[in-house]
Amino acid sequence: LKGFLLNMAGEDNNREAQRGDDHEESSPLLQVNDTKINSKGDKKTAPIVHPPAVEEYGWTADGLPVTDGSVIGEPIGRNQWNSGLFSCFGRNDEFCSSDLEVCLLGSVAPCVLYGTNAERLGSAPGTFSNHCLTYSGLYFIGNSLFGWNCLAPWFSYSSRSAIRRKFNLEGSFEAMNRSCGCCGSCIEDEMQREHMETTCDFVTHVLCHTCALCQEGRELRRKVLHPGFNAQSTVVVLPPSEQTMGRK
To answer: Which residues does the annotated region (Disordered) include (predicted)?
Structure first.
């Protein structure tokens, strides 16, 4: 009997030991500790991940970054003028009436047209009066002394260069080189090309002054709003309708 009791006690102790082992293995605290230990071990042995390399973009000859729409290494092309130099009456579109106004101002009062062009380029206070008065003085001096408007183009040709640079327009020198291909050999860098374009702008204003002013006016009126035009949305507040009290 004593031996039987000892065997029964040994079996109970074994069962309790197994239950204790199962409880320890299924303990969430031990699992958390194990995961922490494993994570620490992973941190020590984890490979170093380098940050992704910055994507490099090419650059054009003009110093402008190549966008997604351009091919790497291919320079961005110039935009064309909206109307030709000798398109006196402009184009038959929604700006047709404005083109006729430009043609009339260029023929009768070129000082006013030049002043409005300068005002659209730079909306600083007094831009119109400063440019218009200066142009008027040079216009009358040139006509009085030399019989034709030969002094105002020396003052107004810079506006053509400013418009061409602002909207990335094709210049006269580049158009000549594209048509005949005989002028590109004398250009070595971008700075020299810009000097040639500025010279062509001056020659255009001297030889075709009125046509140049009208072409610039048509271009600006299609791309730049007049600084005096404030296109702001107006909020209209309506009063509440008349209300009456009903009786029940």
So the answer is: 9-30
SS3 category, 222: helix
Please name which of 240, 231, 162 lies closest in space to residue 198, comparing C-alpha atoms.
Answer: 162
| Segment 72-117, tens digit of pLDDT | 555 567 899 999 999 988 888 888 999 999 999 999 999 999 999 9
| 199 to 163, 172, 203, 248: CA distances (angstroms) | 15, 9, 6, 88
Is the Cβ–Cβ distance between 79 and 163 less than 8 Å? Answer: no
pTM for this predicted structure: 0.62
Q: How many residues does the chain have?
A: 248
DSSP state of 185: G
Contact 118, 127 (CB under 8 A): yes
Return the SS3 of 12: helix
Amino acid at 182: C
Q: How many CB atoms lie within 10 A of CB 129?
A: 11
Question: Is 103 in contact with 193 (CB distance < 8 Å)?
Answer: no
